[in-house]
Each structure stands twice: as structure tokens, then as C-alpha cells.
Design a protein that fits this description.
Elements (H helix, E strand, L loop, with lengths): L1 E5 L16 E5 L4 H16 L14 E8 L2 E8 L6 H16 L3 H14 L5 E4 L4 E5 L1 E3 L4 H11 L5 E5 L2 E4 L4 H10 L3 E5 L1 H9 L7 E2 L2 H10 L2
Parallel strand pairs: 6-8, 7-9, 8-10, 10-11
Antiparallel strand pairs: 1-2, 3-4, 5-6
Helix pairs in contact: 1-2
Length: 226
């Protein structure tokens, strides 16, 4: 699996501005069990009737796909496909295998940037460790409100918790209530922030002592503050 992007905003990757940004490429060997699952699902898709819906939009991404196996092939361009369409399921399959194979931070951040255009679910991941880390990335809308509240409820009695928002862009102010209720109820919480997420947390009047620019500093705070 190979992923190539630029270190600046992903939205400039197809424009002249990208020429001044440093590109990176990560190559990884996919684990055999994941690879087998990928090829099995892909061949099943290519053997079935395949329809591409004509879509166009102003807010989203254009995706070009060219895949071939012994079972068949698919070559198409599509605009931000819905996850349940033929194109959406095939693009989603590729997206999932990229997640399985990627561990370098820059590659993971790029996959997180794509989440909002390829997935409907809450842009969040729980990373287990000595201190549980909830990573919120991309952006949140009122569409995510119920899922966010359910996730917070699951983590309420989880001990020390780091909310990693270092790759987070923004959210609607209607979600502030969910964050405030959770922060008031959770006994041991810290935030690692991006510039955008810090503005939201400051607007919620969270303590600056619990906000950090780096994940490592937030972890150190939680480890030493008891």
C-alpha cells in the first residue's frame, strides 16, 4: 500500500501551490490476513453489476479509481460518493486497507482529512494505553451530536483521559454543551490541541492549565497530577 501527499493542506494537492510544499510517500506491506480480505471483497464487487452514479458538488473531493484483478476491472471518476453506493463501497474498501497499513503520523493525518468525505460516522478513534486517548479529528457538526454524547458516556468513568484534538478543525457551537457536561463530570481530563480546537475550548471557558500544544505534554500532566 502506497500513500503520497503533501505536508501542507491536502486541499492544495492538485494545485500549483503544492509545488512549494514538500511531498511525502509512505509504502507499507499489508498483513496477509488483511490483504486476503481486501482482494476477496474487491473481486466480489467487480464480479457484480457495477453502476456509477453521476454526482457533482462544490464541497467534497473528486476521486479517480483504476483497479484491475483477474475477476474484472473498474475505471471511473466520482465526486464524494455516498458510502453505500457501488463507487462508495469500492473507495471505502481502499480507504480501509490504507488505515490497516498506516502508522506514520503524517499518513494517518491525511487519512483523517479524508474521513469527512468518505464516512458518515463520528470522526473519532479511541487509542488504548496506560492513559486512554480519545482522538477527535476533522470537524464535528450537529449530525454527530448523539454519537458524540454516547461516546462521552462510555468514557465517563475511564480514569485519566487525554482528548487529542491536534488534527481537529472546528465544530458547531451547538456541541459545546456535550463537551462542557463531559468535562465537568470527568475527574481527570486533559486536551492536546490544534490552533482551531483551542479556540473552541477557550470559548467553552475550559482551564488553560488542561490545554497543551503537544500530546506528550498532556500525557505528562495526567501522569503527574494524579
Amino acid at each position: 500500500m502506497e500513500l503520497t501527499s503533501v505536508e501542507s493542506s491536502i486541499w492544495y494537492s492538485g494545485h500549483a501551490e503544492a509545488s512549494v510544499a514538500r511531498r511525502f510517500t509512505h509504502k507499507n506491506i499489508v498483513a496477509p490476513n488483511y490483504a486476503l480480505r481486501f482482494w476477496t471483497k474487491l473481486e466480489a464487487m467487480l464480479l457484480a453489476p457495477f453502476n456509477i452514479e453521476e454526482t457533482i458538488g462544490l464541497d467534497g473531493i473528486s476521486i479517480e479509481v483504476d483497479c484491475r484483478t483477474l475477476a474484472g476491472s473498474a475505471n471511473f471518476e466520482v465526486w464524494s460518493p455516498e458510502p453505500e453506493t457501488h463507487a462508495g463501497r469500492l473507495v471505502g474498501l481502499i480507504y480501509d486497507i490504507a488505515w490497516e497499513a498506516s502508522s506514520v503520523a503524517s499518513a494517518v493525518e491525511r487519512l483523517e482529512h479524508l474521513h469527512g468525505d468518505l464516512r458518515d460516522e463520528l470522526p473519532a478513534r479511541i487509542i488504548d494505553g496506560p492513559i486512554t486517548r480519545l482522538r477527535l479529528f476533522g470537524s464535528l457538526t450537529t449530525h454527530h451530536q448523539e454519537a458524540l454524547r454516547q461516546l462521552f458516556a462510555r468514557l465517563l468513568h475511564n480514569g485519566s483521559l487525554l482528548i487529542d484534538m491536534t488534527n481537529f478543525g472546528g465544530m458547531g457551537t451547538a456541541l459545546y454543551g456535550a463537551f462542557i457536561e463531559f468535562a465537568v463530570s470527568h475527574p481527570h481530563l486533559a486536551f492536546a490541541t490544534s490552533q482551531g480546537s483551542r479556540r473552541h475550548l477557550e470559548a467553552m471557558q475550559f482551564s488553560p492549565e488542561r490545554m497543551f500544544d503537544r500530546v506528550e505534554d498532556a500525557v505528562r500532566f495526567l501522569e503527574t497530577s494524579g
